[in-house]
Amino acid sequence: YVNDMGRQIAIVVWGMDHLGIEAEPDEKPDAYTARVYVEANRRIEADPAITAEVDALMQQIEAQDPATVRKFRNVVSRCLDGFKETLAALATPHDRYVWESDFLRIGDMERLLNRFVRRAEAHQDEIFWLDLSAFGIKNRYVLRRSDGTSVYAARDLAYHVWKGRNADRVIDVLGADHKLIGASLQAALKLLGEKPPEIVFFEFVSLPEGSMSTRAGKFVPSDDLVAETRRRALEEVTVRRPELPEAERLAIARSVALAAIRYDIVRVSPEKSTVFDWATALDFERQSGPYVQYAHARACSILEKAGGDWSEAYACESAYERALARQIAKFPVVVAQTIEELRPHLLATYARELADLFNTFYHFEPVLRAEGRTRDSRLTLVKAAQNTLKEALETLGIDALASM
Asked: CA 350 → CA 22, 334, 335, 388, distances in Å?
């Protein structure tokens, strides 16, 4: 959902028109946009008269003035290009981008507001707002400002009506600071008899103090986190596999860094905040994404060494074999539970436990040195573990590497 309206965008448009800030060579477009936004805000604080110019832009975009619409769309398109680069680095593709302004342009938002007008919960004084106290929400749910312009919530409601009518299941993933916004959205949709979204609130991910320099001491851009994680991953891969060509080490490091970030974010339940620590996230020997990747690579190595010199067999004679087989059998149930409860940490925990059991099995039970039916049975179990680790990793959006 692309937010291409609202005051923040108007501030950027004003900054683009008046500040003359040029993009630096090789600067990502979203980083450039952020720079313009910060400087424009600074100017507005120093000269409050600029606020009237920003307000005028808000009126013009609400009226769908063609020139203003083009300016807003160009600014947001440029920023979105930068976001897409970041999302690609995190293996988070989107099938479709829906633009906020479309719901104003095609009239969906206005039709939605008209449906509320007839309800007792709707109030029009200086602003247009809903009383959601019947849902335990004390704050006014504002949909239109005193100057007649709509607020984000109005367009967001229209967007969710569209989603609810075009999807069997609607899921929103929001930060923990959006709980009131999420509850208000659900309540307003219920008033109209529309399908409310299921909402998963994620607590924040922070970094150990002093682990990275931050811009203005307030946040670390995702791009910086990815770059630093890749750098550290490359150091670790180089120590472990110095004989590999540089290009191969770089490719492995990129996959390992992605595993470290994605796994570390979902390894704890959504309601718990977490600190991203590189030593833990990149530890090949502990509870991390690379640790699960390494178990998969080990299974691939065993199977490669075995070649085709074995046949499927099922025995599972030892406690280690039975424990591993039981864990493998749980995979479909865990995936279904993860989807139903919208708790990805369940799958992350499962994958780590599977890696634990596989490594324990491998440590105590000879595979390639075993003989006859025992060897075949253990290789069959290794193959099943490799398949399941691969499926679990890929479901988590992590590369299942055959070699590390």
From this structure: 49, 7, 9, 11
Tokens 């299921």, located at residue = 198
| Identity of the residue numbered 33 | T
Q: What's the CA angle centered on 176, arms 173 and 180, to 5 degrees?
A: 95
**Per-residue DSSP letters for 176-242?**
GGGHHHHHHHHHHHHHTTPPPPEEEEEPPEE--TTSS--BTTTB--HHHHHHHHHHHHHHHHHHH-T
Pick one of 1.10.730.10, 1.10.3470.10, 3.40.50.300, 3.20.20.140 as the CATH number of 222-395: 1.10.730.10
Q: What are the backbone dihedrals phi and psi of residue 132, each rounded to the nearest 5 degrees, phi first?
A: -105, 25
Cβ contact 37:29 at 8 Å: no
CA torsion 369-393-347-377 (nearest 10°) is -20
CB 137 within 8 A of CB 183: yes
| Under 8 Å between Cβ of 385 and 299 | yes
- The domain segmentation of the chain, as residue ranges, is 1-91, 98-202, 222-395
Q: For each of the chain's 404 residues, which pLDDT tens digit applies? A: 999 998 999 999 999 999 999 999 999 999 999 999 999 999 999 999 999 999 999 999 999 999 999 999 999 999 999 999 999 999 998 999 999 999 999 999 999 999 999 899 999 999 999 999 999 999 999 999 998 899 999 999 999 999 999 999 999 999 999 999 999 999 999 999 999 999 999 998 888 865 554 444 466 788 989 999 999 999 999 999 999 999 999 999 999 999 999 999 999 999 998 888 888 888 888 889 999 999 999 999 999 999 988 999 998 889 999 999 999 999 999 999 999 999 999 999 999 999 999 999 999 999 999 999 999 999 999 999 999 999 999 999 999 999 98
Contact 100, 2 (CB under 8 A): yes
Q: CA triplet 354, 339, 154: central angle to 5 degrees?
A: 145
Whether 312 and 380 have beta carbons less than 8 Å apart is answered as yes
